């Protein structure tokens, strides 16, 4: 019986064989690597990955799809909301210092998934994801561009990222209403040491009203935390490079 895509799960199944081959080649999975796939769906990526790896773990929330996937003994099926999966614990169970994460992420919760994985970046070798094109453009955006924003700053302090491939709606069934793209994310080998929660608060405050200069948004926040250093608040949030946000976080009083 054909599986009907469920809107509540944001399901759009990849069907384009050329795109699938390009993604698998970009990932370049090697036998015995610890790889976990988010949202395998109808196994378009799962099968070619499995052929190269011999064993694969998948996270699937849809119980009907999870039941189908369990018919393959080489698959470890984790039937769960991905936001509840502890990737660090999964890596530890496999005695793996680094895991690889792949997937066609549900577009309706892609940003929460990216932020969830940020908590586990220390155990990740790399991540390859299908995402909405405009989300990927924001992830890799440079300062002083319209795409540069909170997502750019929150991810770039921890990852090196690259847009690999554009994917049209016709590559899916049912086709989404947006263009898609493949992104590669590699955690930095030596990321700056910062208090991640405080960094997140600072960045969120800075971009809370991006049309205003930082004196009106970030300024009061810094005053409340007794910041006495120098930081140019006569700019808008999108004009500040990631390195300056990191340095400001490091300079805040404990």
* Count of folded domains: 2
Mind telling me the C-alpha Rg? 20 Å
Q: Strand content of the residues, in percent?
A: 15-25%
Annotated CATH homologous superfamily of the largest domain: Vaccinia Virus protein VP39
Note poorly predicted spans: 5-10
Instruction: Give the CATH level 1 class of the largest domain.
Output: Alpha Beta
Helix and strand string, N-terminal first? EHEHEHEHEHEHHEEEHHH
Helical fraction equals: 25-40%
Number of DSSP-assigned strands:
9
| Main beta sheet | 7 strands, mixed
CATH topology assignment of the largest domain: Rossmann fold
Termini separation comes to: 59 Å
Mean pLDDT: 93
Outline the structure in words.
This protein is an alpha/beta fold. It folds into 2 domains: 7-187, 3-Layer(aba) Sandwich (Rossmann fold); 196-251, Helicase, Ruva Protein, domain 3 (Orthogonal Bundle), CATH 1.10.8. It is built from 10 helices and 9 strands. A 7-stranded mixed beta sheet has the order 4-3-2-5-6-9-7. A two-stranded antiparallel ribbon has the order 1-8. Strand 5, helix 5 (110-118) and strand 6 form a beta-alpha-beta unit. The protein is elongated and about 60 Å long.
